[in-house]
Amino acid sequence: MSTEPHALQRPVNTPPHVVIIGAGFGGLEAAKALARAPVRVTVLDKSNHHLFQPLLYQVATAGLSPADIAMPIRGLLGRFRNTRVLMADVERVDAARRRVHLRDGHDLDYDYLIVAAGAETNYFGHDRWADHSVGLKTVEDALEVRRRVLTAFERAEREEDEAERRRLLTFVVIGAGPTGVELAGAISELNRRVLAADYRRVRPEEVRVILLDMAPRVLVGMHESLSQSAQKQLESLHVEVHLDAAVESIEEGRVITDKASFDSRTVMWTAGVSPVPLGRTIGVELVRGKVPVKKDCSVEGHPELFVIGDLAHFIGEDGKPLPGVSPVAMQQGRFVGAAIQSDLDGLHRGTFRYVDKGMMATVGRSRAVADVRGFRFDGFAAWLAWLAVHLFFLVGFKNRVAVLFNWIWQYVAFRRGARLITYNEPVGPRRAAALPAPRATEAAPPPEHPAAVSR
Questions:
Q1: Given CA atoms 342, 346, 350, 352 in this order, what sign does their dihedral have?
Q2: pLDDT tens-digit profile of 149-198?
Q3: Which of 29, 159, 164, 182 is catalytic?
Q4: Which of 45, 91, 294, 448 would be 435's cystine partner, CB 3.0–4.6 Å?
Q5: Is position 300 annotated as part of the catalytic site?
Q6: What percent of the chain shows pLDDT beyond 70?
Q7: Terminal CA-to-CA distance of the chain, rounded, Å?
Q8: Nearest to residue 212, comparing CAs of 167, 163, 262?
Q9: The whole model's pTM is what?
Q10: pLDDT exceeding 90 applies to what percent of the chain?
Q11: Nearest to residue 58, comparing CAs of 130, 126, 134, 146?
């Protein structure tokens, strides 16, 4: 379905102002697509960096440092003369007045608005579980996971009570999607290939890595044969996979499902995400928290307002909503940039069509599964393909070189260089849910939060 060019109302000789909310995959691609357009572009983001989220789990498991997978937004867009970057938190969108309101009290008027604000961790109505769990959506989350995992090993090294040692050395990952599968496999490998040589009292066979999900199989978005292969590869890494298991409650140091309970001091939540609340301020009826958009990614009644990525409810050619994955956001970002250019040239925008290039997930060293346009493969070949694809899409030449060097070093030497506990207790709202207070004979490491999955 074509869309008529939007009639701009602004002073003569003043370039249209395009505001982009979010510098994730979609927002960054939109800004790049508009780099040479006769417009003024303002990119807003709460952080000053673009984060390559697919590799967050490697920061969480001490394989990479945060600087390896994040780049300053200004460094990425600074060469574009028509673009400025503001570190700002958007409170709401006034679509009627074409104005963006920031939490610091400032406002920005726009001619075009691209909302690419992304998603946040979803606890499926059990928000209190956030006090006892840690997700994996930000650099701060990844560092917190790393702190908890390494601190658990440190405490287990000197813990005399066997029951407490078991709790410390049990790691529960909730959610068997790509992030959960990758995180569980990486923690198991960290234990058996790296940390086993670092500790004298902690034996690799004492450590339990448990992957929970209420789904009937891991990686439900992939073909069943690849799900089966991924589960077998996980089990070869000594990961305990528990499926069809809905979490019913979370207690201090314990996760309870409808089938069993698991004592653990370190529980990680990768079970799902939900669109950020900003979509509620746009003034349209949401669909499962997402903003419904037309075939050109614009909002009904507002051809100047686009929503892309995780926040957009876009019905694909198969009649199903597009998934909240980075390739969708990137392709939509490029399309919207071109659509705005078409408006300026007096042309029709056309229709967005998503090209699905497949899905990959790594399970561990030389282990992965891949589905590339119907060609399914696993094992070492899939792992090499996974490495190549992630290096290609990683932003920044320096980051690509650093990550490649780290991967080669880890593969050859079985070492991970980012095994740092950079602070000893949680910060912010997590402080109250840390590891339980140590006994009188111990020094005072932090309590821990447990987590759980249920819908």
A1: positive
A2: 999 999 999 999 999 999 999 999 999 999 999 999 999 999 988 888 88
A3: 182
A4: 448
A5: no
A6: 88
A7: 37
A8: 262
A9: 0.86
A10: 69
A11: 146
